[in-house]
Amino acid sequence: MSSNYQDKQKLLQEKKEKIARLKEEQMKQQLQIASVKQPQQVTQAEENGESKQSSQQVQPTQNQGVIAPPQQSDFISLYLQTKRKKLGFQTIEMYSNNPAPPQAEVITIEFGVQCEFEMPQQKQENDDQVIPIMENVRRDSRKKKEVLQSAEKVVEKVEKNISMEEINSIVQSQSFQRFFSRSSKTIEKAIHGGEVDVLEDLMNTQQVAQEIGKDNLTKLLSFSDKVYTENRVVTSIQWSPTLPNTFLAAYSQNEEGSITDQVGVVLLWSLQLKSRPEFYCFANSPITSACFHPFSPNVVLGGLYNGQVVVWDLRAKHTPEKRSTLNSGGHSYPIYGLSIVGSQNANNLISSSNDGRICIWNLAQLNQPQKIIDLKTKNKQQTTNPQVEVNSTCMVFPQGDANNFYVGAEDGCIYKSKLHQNTNENIVIPFEEHLAPVSGISLNSSPQASPIISNLLLSSSFDWTCKLWNTRTQSDNKCLATFECSEDYVYDVQWNGQHPSLFSTTDGEGYVDLWDLSYDLEAPITRYKSGNNSINKSQWSKDGTKIAIGDSFGEIQILQLSQKAQKVDHERLAKLEQWIKSEK
Amino acid sequence: MSEIEETINRIKTHKSVQGIVICNNDGQIIRSTYGTESKEGENIARTIPTLAAKAKSTVRDLDPQNELTFLRIKSKNNEIMVAPDKEFLLIVVQGPKEEKKEDE
């Protein structure tokens, strides 16, 4: 009997040792599992379940950790087997030899809906307690299936619960509006553009194939908006210095519109978005001039009919972010000239109004201009101090110059002046030849221009002519050449930004004349009729291949310049320079 | 509010556009031109957000500074364009690309 008892004791001992060994192996396996982490919900749950269970659970996905069947005498194994079977066990050997339970197959379902895993987060159970494995396994897989099914149900339930009120409230929300305005523009560009990358500027696909020798100007696109451009005169056009293929256009008031129409409108158009403007800017007075801020891509500046200077931020709202006050000592007449001079760090806004007043503004402080200059000139009868104000209609600064500027006036003269003068008086130097108000002036800004050519100034006037001036020679102030080909007011003249001797004039009959000085000083190389409306403003694009023209009924056309006209003939250009030199 | 409807109309009446769906990231339809009878709108709203999310995470994985701006799926029968956002998606289904029409 005692030997039996001793035997039993020995068996018990061995059993305990075996359990200890198994636990060790188990711990090793757990460490292995922890290092091989898989980012799936189900295996995560598996691990969670794993950590709680006792030692005897085996990882099905691990093929390495197969526990060697313990070496036992038949007696003991039989004993253990019967005991386990009684409790509903599955032996370790059986378990490890079987293939992995269905957990692995369930792993691939991904929903994106995180749901609470229902496995109870229990504290560590007693390690010595031997918990039925098979039941747990079954429970796990069942639970996981339930959880996943409930996840599906959750999604369905959420879908059914969203109601019309919720939808409407979402639609009204700010974030939705912003999202929609942005993404709808992208989508519209994509729809129109076809293969073109919608986010970049690739105008190549939109270039109309041109035969060499044919028309020098061909119409590319036309922009107008029923609501905002109908019956309004285009008062200002400028291409963006930073955004490609984007330009702004300022419009006057719609005379025949309703009271609720916006009075002052600036629209930003993109060549890729043809159906509507990319941005809107509104003001409470007609806008007479507008420009981009060359150093801040999101800022647009405008000069109003009532003399106010306004600043829009495109990222914010449609109405001006900042504006100058009407009684601040600034302007009280329409602002016809607006430009930013200076460098990125030190720049000022210069505005000129119809009464001859020039104001220098600091954009951070629009309450008061930094400096006010009143341009005055002498009357024909006067000999002493200048008394007559200069009614300026346009203003231009040479590129890179922050001091000298030219102003075209209603008396037909062009005045040259400086922002900062040594004396207190304001000295203006007149170029007097036009017989009617000057409507537009332009300085040659072509990078290919020689120093002689870059001093050339063009002016257009209501006297049906355009004149060419050399700004260097101040002796007799005679113009170099007169261009008479229009039979109506010439509204605007613009040098081509790239070609040193090419410029365009637009007149009241709808003609756009293209002149190349190196070819002919007497006649334009092309006369293009853009319609029956007079063209008020025009502007060449930065690369000099396109010109945007705005007419008096709110329509803007983009014309493409032919390759032939873009070519620079250097010989002829040299001859032109010779002639200019000789004209002194 | 009406601006949205106008824009949706304008996109919808464009040649070859078959349908528009605006939904949020969970697949709930906010606006759809497919109507409630056809299952197409629901199918789109159910499947596209997950694909867009996967594309978003892929772009981020490849370069953490990058983000998805536009997704375009060209298939044999049509073309699906997705403009994703933090919370919403604008999905436009367009028919096969036709010849370039002349601009007026």
TrEMBL record, chain A:
SMART domains: WD40 (SM00320)
Cited Pfam families: WD40
Keyword Repeat: yes
UniProt-listed GO biological process terms: transport along microtubule
Residue ranges, compositional bias (Low complexity): 51-64
InterPro entries (UniProt xref): Dynein_IC, WD40_repeat_CS, WD40_rpt
Keywords: Coiled coil, Cytoplasm, Repeat, WD repeat
Positions of region (Disordered): 31-68
Molecular functions (GO terms): dynein heavy chain binding; dynein light chain binding
Biased composition range(s): Polar residues: 31-46
Repeat (WD) residue spans along the chain: 328-363
Coiled-coil region(s): 134-168
GO cellular component: cytoplasmic dynein complex
Name of protein: Cytoplasmic dynein intermediate chain
From TrEMBL, chain B:
Chief location: cytoplasm
Biological function: Acts as one of several non-catalytic accessory components of the cytoplasmic dynein 1 complex that are thought to be involved in linking dynein to cargos and to adapter proteins that regulate dynein function. Cytoplasmic dynein 1 acts as a motor for the intracellular retrograde motility of vesicles and organelles along microtubules.
Listed transmembrane segments: none
Domain of life, source organism: Eukaryota
Organism: Paramecium sonneborni
Keywords linked to the UniProt accession: Cytoplasm, Cytoskeleton, Dynein, Microtubule, Motor protein, Transport
Coiled-coil blocks: none
SMART domains: Robl_LC7
Subcellular localization: Cytoplasm, Cytoskeleton
Roadblock/LAMTOR2 domain residues: 4-94
Similarity comment text for this entry: Belongs to the GAMAD family.
Protein name from the UniProt record: Dynein light chain roadblock
